[in-house]
Design goal:
Layout: H1 12-63, E1 70-74, H2 75-80, E2 101-107, E3 112-118, E4 127-130, H3 131-134
Antiparallel strand pairs: 1-2, 2-3, 3-4
Length: about 140
């Protein structure tokens, strides 16, 4: 006569123990992965704004005289002149399109242009990045 209970497999306790271990690993890994993703997005965001600022520098070198005290240049103007080859540039942090303006000011003390990026296209209101944050 054969035994009925010869089936092989895991007990409910063993399965629950594995699930508990996986849940603990997930609780430890999730914040680390989230932080890494956010840091990468922030670095990509700054890199994109640096690229746009670099194109604004080229625009300023071509079209803005050193004696012009303050000039507002929109990203659309920079695109229209061909300094930004890609179409719309997305902000990696929130997925919105980078649109705004740079206030370009000639700094006599250092004999260079200073750049402040504004979220609005009018060079007023909220600034997102200034020159120090780009460096």
């Amino acid at each position: 006569m054969k035994k009925i209970n010869e089936e092989k497999g895991f007990t409910l306790t063993e399965l629950l123990a594995v699930l508990v271990v996986l849940a603990i690993v997930a609780m430890i890994a999730y914040p680390i992965i989230t932080k890494t993703i956010n840091n990468s997005k922030k670095k990509a965001q700054i890199a994109q704004y640096k690229e746009v600022r670099e194109q604004a520098r080229k625009y300023a070198a071509m079209y803005i005289a050193g004696d012009d005290p303050d000039t507002c240049v929109t990203i659309d103007q920079i695109k229209a002149e061909g300094f930004l080859e890609r179409g719309n540039i997305k902000d990696p942090m929130d997925g919105s399109f980078i649109n705004g303006s740079f206030k370009i000011t000639w700094n006599d003390d250092f004999n260079q242009f200073d750049y402040v990026y504004y979220i609005a296209t009018t060079c007023t209101g909220t600034t997102k990045y200034t020159g120090d944050e780009f460096n």
